[in-house]
Design brief:
The chain has 520 residues and is an alpha/beta fold. The chain has 16 helices and 8 strands.
Amino acid sequence: MGIPLVSDKFKKEESQLKTLLNEYSDMIDRNSFLVKDKIDEVKKEFETLFNFVVVGKVKAGKSSFLNALLGIKEGEEDIFEVGPGPQTSKITIVRKGEGNVETKGDIVTIYKDLDSLEGIEIIDTPGTDTIMEKHEKITRDFLENSNLIMFVFDSKNIYTKSDWDLVEEIIKNLNKDVIFILSQKDRASQEEIEMAKKELINRCNKIDLKDPKIFLTSAKLEIESKDDSGFQQVRDYIFNEIGSHDKKRMKLKTIIGKIRHSINLNSKLLNEKIGELEVRKRYYENVQLFLQENQSFLNIRLESINDSLTKYYSSKLTDLKSTILQFYKTQKKVKELVEHEITKFKKEVSNTLEERIKREISYIIGEEKRRVDKFFDKEEVIDRLGKNSFLNEKLKSDVDKFFDDFQGDLENEINTILDSAFKTVTFKNKSLLNRFYILGSVQKRLDNEISSQMKALENTLRTNVESFLNSLKVKMQTSMFENYEAFKKEINKLEHFKDLKGKIDEYSRQLEDIELSISD
């Protein structure tokens, strides 16, 4: 029902474009970092390719004119109410739809399933007196976004000041296509019509509008399906100047251009994010490799230190045991001699172990710093941090502190073990005969003490090294990433961003296909 006012060509392309636009908009909504870039406005523009705003004073015949323009015939339900008094106290928008009505403030939206509403919307404004007072801002917004403004005058009265104030505002400030409708021509004489046309042209010339488009219409004749209603000329003008195939093609191309602009913007944004994350990922992978290799290197070096210290300590304990047993075989004052030997043993072993630990750790620190320098010279690291990064020097300074703390803790633990050495073994002076008698018992106690000492040392070395390596890895991660978990989480977004980029590239290809199709 109804008479189409704009071209119905390119329906396939419209459907494809609508699907693309909705999917693209949904993708942006699901990914808040993407730029919306007025895409909601593009959606609204696409849903109604063309909009016509109708203005005029109360009782100028706007409602009857619009009903007739949309093809409503005698006996059919009016879309716009017709009556003797003001019928339009609100702004009324009519769109194609299922027949529902929505009211929001001073705006009423009516949905009608009419062929004449395909691809368009009609916006009917209150009378011009009301426009200039109550609805000026709302009406201006609609006027600014319109494709065509239809100014309706009663053929017998075109002299209202508020009408011409608005006409002048539209012509001078909005730069919009305007046509003038002299309605209800069936109620005016030919002389009145000619006078109205002449006056309208004169007033338009005064505001620098040359050759105004004027149409004489009779809604009564059109609704009754009689000739010479003037509506076919209005429809022809709308179709040829606003809603033709070419105009529709241009409109679709404009929308495609706006979508492409948004896609290019987000494509560039995603490329930047992907590039940044790929740099981060390469840095992350190199850090992980460095930490892994570093753990392996340190583990080997520290295990070597442990073996060296353990063998040395075992050797010194064995020597001490031999000395003590020899005292029991040859000396009377065993207690004093043994106590003196143990004191000497502890001092010598403590000094030697400290020197060995210091020497070995000093070597490891030097090697560790060379490894750090080598890491920061890697291209992937330079891409992320730049050359001569302050982090390099900071990390090497941290290495000194990490190992100093480790060395101090290890020496304290070993000295604690040394301090406890042989405290559970009692040495007493005995006669020579008694000493020989208890020699086996002393040897057994010494063996137990040595075994206990070795277990304590081995356990201390193992736990200290394990704790240090784990702690060192965490500290290095902290130095290299600031927030390791957040950095890792950010990198995990890379594949998602690449997937989004793939979808955006596909939308761009689809746009090219649609544009090519409507250009044929």
